Amino acid sequence: MPAFFMHGWHSFAYLLIMNLHSHDPYWLMKSGMVTTYPSLQQDLKTDVVVIGAGISGALTADALSRMGLGVTVVDRRHAGIGSTAASTAFLQYEIDTPLHRLSAMVGEHHALRSYELCREAIYKLQDICRHVQPAVDFHIRPSLQYASYKSHVPKLYKEYRTRKQYGFKVRWLEPEDIDRLYGFTAPGAILSSDGAEADAYLLTHHLLAGCNRRGHGIYNNTEITDIRYHKRGATLITNNNIKIETRIVVIACGYESLRNIPHKIAEVHSTYALVSEPIAQLNFWHRNSLIWETANPYLYFRITDKNRILIGGKDDPFYTPGLRDSRIKQKAKLLQEAFNKKLPDIPVRPDFSWAGAFAVTKDGLPYIGRLPGMPHTYFALGFGGNGITFSVIASQIIADLVRGKKNADAKIFGFNR
Ligand SMILES: Cc1cc2nc3c(=O)[nH]c(=O)nc-3n(C[C@H](O)[C@H](O)[C@H](O)COP(=O)(O)OP(=O)(O)OC[C@H]3O[C@@H](n4cnc5c(N)ncnc54)[C@H](O)[C@@H]3O)c2cc1C
């Protein structure tokens, strides 16, 4: 008999099937299905079930499988086609809350560690992209954050001083430096050395394929509709009533995890992106930096493969898929115009445009770890603008917690912070 029985998951799974993105996310169009997996058709027993086959689930499954645990990954859709397929994959240590402001919100130590962990996550991802089979393209890129208005300069400069003081590799750029290196005008900017870009969709697929080759089960079209806890683990029930016995549950369901959490931890908004047609130009700007600004919501852009320009932003503070999707064309035009205003000599013609949901938390930090009342269960919720670096942090913290090792950083991202 189960020691206790949870209904929370049950209602979550049925009620919250979100529309995570729409139209043509570039990486999904470029790589297609990559690998397909069957749905689960028979009961099984395993050490760990990872629910959700996006970048968070893939990284966590990879880490846990390398610890010698038997891992099963299930997804109600196809692997990688949740938010991960829509991601513009800026890999930055600068989270949406500036370091000096985060310090005031969560304390200096937690704020600094969050920034340091995100920076470490970039290099950890570099290592993972190199070693996964086949390797995934990964490029270190500087990150430029420019002041959108003159009035934003004092706060941005304060942020520069704060980061410099803590040893981050940053330079302050005056308007003439920005013009020389980037070809546009802005009243000031921080240039950070540590940033990167990668194809998160391919990385997710290649990590999962590696797990599968090592004997771990990956299942598409397999939705977890109920979790029944008992003393030594849990029984997970799928949409077609298959039972999975497991010792450990990892919930990596992205924004769809929200309904399973008893208190409100995030708001879901809508964001927009486009990728241009390839451009016959060799040099765009300083070391193909990732570029973003101080305005909120911010415009961001970078170069992606085949000399295409990726532009994102123009966020809306709501999650209403119908309304969001009706705006994609108009938002793509606005993104194109905003980019052209900055760099009129680079001819951007939208080739792919799409919209997606993303979650905003009160401090810009993710939620990772355990929730009271859900034993044997770990959440990997990389909410916030830096979802992918947060997914790396989640995989590391969860791996430590599962092996019973103390992780001093876990409390920074805990649900009771
Ligand atoms: C347009 C856009 C741009 C972005 N840009 C960036 C960026 O530049 N940099 C960055 O770091 N982050 C960015 N993000 C955020 C980043 O994409 C996400 O943080 C990340 O992809 C989340 O990955 P995930 O694995 O947690 O979630 P997902 O990829 O959504 O995976 C969760 C999976 O769980 C499955 N699932 C849900 N419920 C169940 C259930 N009951 N049973 C079985 N499976 C279930 C879903 O089907 C889904 O596949 C962006 C997001 C969007 C939409």
By CATH reckoning, the class of the largest domain would read Alpha Beta
Count of helix runs:
12
**Quaternary arrangement of the chains shown?**
single chain
CATH topology grouping of the largest domain: FAD/NAD(P)-binding domain
Number of domains: 3
CATH homology-level superfamily of the largest domain: FAD/NAD(P)-binding domain
Calculate Rg over CA atoms. Answer: 21 Å
Helix vs. strand class: alpha+beta
| Average pLDDT score | 93
- Which small-molecule ligands are present, each listed once? flavin-adenine dinucleotide
- As a percent range, the share of helical residues equals 25-40%
Which architecture of the largest domain per CATH? Answer: 3-Layer(bba) Sandwich
User: Widest sheet: strand order?
Assistant: 1-18-14-17-16-15-6-8-7
Number of strands: 20
- Low-pLDDT segments, ≥5 res: 1-8, 10-15
- Estimate what percentage of residues fall within beta strands: 25-35%
Description:
The chain is α+β, with helices and mostly antiparallel strands. The chain folds into three domains: 8-86 and 201-264 and 364-413, FAD/NAD(P)-binding domain; 143-192, no CATH class; 267-360. Helices cover 32% and strands 26% of the residues. The chain is built from twelve helices and 20 strands. It has helices spanning 8-15, 26-31, 55-65, 83-86, 99-106, 108-131, 153-165, 175-182, 200-213, 321-326, 328-342, 387-402, and strands spanning 21-23, 44-51, 71-74, 90-92, 138-140, 143-146, 170-173, 189-192, 195-198, 217-219, 224-230, 233-238, 243-251, 267-276, 290-293, 300-304, 308-316, 350-360, 367-369, 377-381. The strands form three sheets. Strands 1-18-14-17-16-15-6-8-7 form a nine-stranded mixed β-sheet, sandwiched between helices. Strands 2, 3, 10, 11, 12, 13, 19 and 20 form an eight-stranded mixed β-sheet that branches. It has a three-stranded antiparallel β-sheet with strand order 4-9-5, with helices on one face. Helix 3 packs parallel to helix 12, helix 5 packs across helix 6 and helix 6 crosses helix 12. The longest helix is centred in the N-terminal third of the chain and has 24 residues, at 108-131. The protein is globular and about 65 Å long. The model is unreliable at 1-8 and 10-15 (pLDDT under 50). Bound molecules: flavin-adenine dinucleotide (FAD).
